[in-house]
Predict the 3D structure of the following.
Amino acid sequence: MATTHIASVPLEKAYRLINHGPTTLISSRYGETENVMAASWACGLDYVPAKVTVVIDSHTKTRELVEKSGLFVMQVPTVALLNTTRTLGNISMNDIPDKLNIAGVELFEMPGIDVPFVEDCIAWLACKVIPEPHNQEAYDLFIGEVVGAWADTRVFNNGHWLFDTADPELRSIHYISGGQFYAIGEGMEAYK
Amino acid sequence: MATTHIASVPLEKAYRLINHGPTTLISSRYGETENVMAASWACGLDYVPAKVTVVIDSHTKTRELVEKSGLFVMQVPTVALLNTTRTLGNISMNDIPDKLNIAGVELFEMPGIDVPFVEDCIAWLACKVIPEPHNQEAYDLFIGEVVGAWADTRVFNNGHWLFDTADPELRSIHYISGGQFYAIGEGMEAYK
């Protein structure tokens, strides 16, 4: 379980967890209902206070849960979660209530934050919605302030990703369309 | 020159050019002044009509040019442009007027669109700003409608990226921080 390798990440470095543009999973809960969707359109917005944007379509169950609870987790799935991520992006809990079991998702809790986290991801950004009704209604665009961030220390340590040396199953995945993804590749240093 | 390999991409497939989260270059022009900046916080927003978001800091020259002209190009640089991209993200034309020469950027024109394009990129999305003053002022967040899209046919063809078989110098690059990038990696197919 990924939870054995989690360490917190300073909020001012949280943007580094998604700066390379991975496909993300958005988890949320309201009352007894919890859900997870895949989101490619997830992006950094600010450093301090750390903020992110994410597009959450109005037809998704997640949209309802996020609007009601004002909370979500944006997390980074891996090569090992490729088919799970595909399923989470392909079917809606509005059509298939058993979605999470079908996708094979396991959830866990973080103390003090009432929103479910997805096991076996490599980074987690817990976010509080900054209400922007016009963006939400006109563009399905949500802004979240990052209130907590964590990463898997096997692949992110001391503020840096370790994709070149970590288990290849822990690489982030980057969706294109129609089931086609790319894993993140080789590290490159520009001049300092 | 990349211009010899350009083909247009249908607007409804333009999102595929940035869906995998590459670092982008934002080019713009107003009057006699043209500039290019690097932007990691660039993201898809909608399919039809195609829209994107991009964060453009208020201290950049690009911000002024985009606000005055209402146009920008979001383009995808490559491994071959690693140091150029770093320079474009590191220095401001407000401080160093000769920025584009220092970065080694070459620009080209597309007929009918009054905004400069960056040579040797692998994808180009010409965008018209959808004015959203609150987002621009509160978050430095710009929304663009994609009015034209093109890609380098050596690495994007028939709606699909060809990173696994194309020249590795044509891979997209994904910025983290402090000069550290990752190239895009191995292609992976989830179940259909």
Q: What stands out?
A: Residues 109 and 116 of chain B are 6 Å apart (CA to CA). The longest strand of chain B covers residues 141-152. DSSP finds four helices and 14 strands in chain B. Chain B has a mean pLDDT of 96.
